């Protein structure tokens, strides 16, 4: 009887531990995803684009490099794929543009919307925008 009680207690504690880990991970990732979405929306607005102008978008998550982001196609910039990437723990959004998988700077083509590195403060406000090719600061709050 004592052995059965020990097994039941062990199973209950193990189950509670597993649920706590699973819920905590899901909660943390949901908060990270929400913050990433807010930042990407601010960057798109900063670029001069609008939500209504988005033709299609995909959410990306790369476990290896810990990047979460979006791939966005705009209606008025056909064939150009914009990638917005955020690495967990960093307060910046990296923006790049490609056509058919090739970076635009390699084919000497310009994107309609600028591609920069955008940095945020802890209040999710844009504080600095840098051209990632030249490292030139374009905006600073």
Automatic annotation (TrEMBL):
It comes from the Bacteria. InterPro entries: DUF3139. This is DUF3139 domain-containing protein.
């Amino acid at each position: 009887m004592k052995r059965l009680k020990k097994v039941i207690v062990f199973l209950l504690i193990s189950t509670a531990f597993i649920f706590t880990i699973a819920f905590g991970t899901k909660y943390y990732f949901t908060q990270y995803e929400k913050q990433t979405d807010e930042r990407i929306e601010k960057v798109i607005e900063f670029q001069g684009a609008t939500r209504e102008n988005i033709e299609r978008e995909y959410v990306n998550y790369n476990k290896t490099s810990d990047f979460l982001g979006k791939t966005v196609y705009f209606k008025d910039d056909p064939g150009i794929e914009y990638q917005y990437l955020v690495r967990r723990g960093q307060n910046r959004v990296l923006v790049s543009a490609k056509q058919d998988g090739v970076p635009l700077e390699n084919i000497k083509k310009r994107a309609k919307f600028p591609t920069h590195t955008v940095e945020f403060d802890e209040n999710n406000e844009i504080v600095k925008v840098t051209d990632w090719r030249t490292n030139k600061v374009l905006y600073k709050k």
